[in-house]
Amino acid sequence: MVQLTVNGKPVTVSAAPETPLLWVLRCELGLTGTKFGCGIGVCGACTVLVGKEIRQACREPVKTLAAARVTTIEGLSGPIADALRRAWTDCDVVQCGYCQSAQLIAAAALLTRRRAPSDAEIDAAMKDIACRCGTFPRIRRAIHMAAAALR
What we know:
Elements: E1 2-6, E2 9-13, H1 21-28, E3 47-50, E4 53-56, E5 69-71, H2 79-90, H3 100-113, H4 119-126, H5 136-150
Parallel strand pairs: 1-5
Antiparallel strand pairs: 1-2, 3-4, 3-5
Helix pairs in contact: 2-3, 2-5, 3-4
């Protein structure tokens, strides 16, 4: 049994200690917004927040997260999340949408640290999340738009 906080709610999970957080979120807790992509930490589709840091849930054994605060796309809220969602819509970012929960999590983490990120800072923050549709220019534009709305 491992206790952690997911999206602000304390949970106790009965998964084996080596079980990746991704499968605990999806299978045990029913939070399917965090996507399975590659399973080896290359694509970034499973990105979540652990505390204030982004992590790839497919690579995080649940045993390492005792007492951690995990935020998934389902729990992402507040002014930053609202600004990002508006900008994502206004910039028509989404095509297939598969990577978008991870993109939004990473963008929120960036805007928590930097309210006016440069293109280079955005690219660095988003580099570990692959978008097969190639909407990176729209993602960058949306992050700039959200940042401006927050200022």
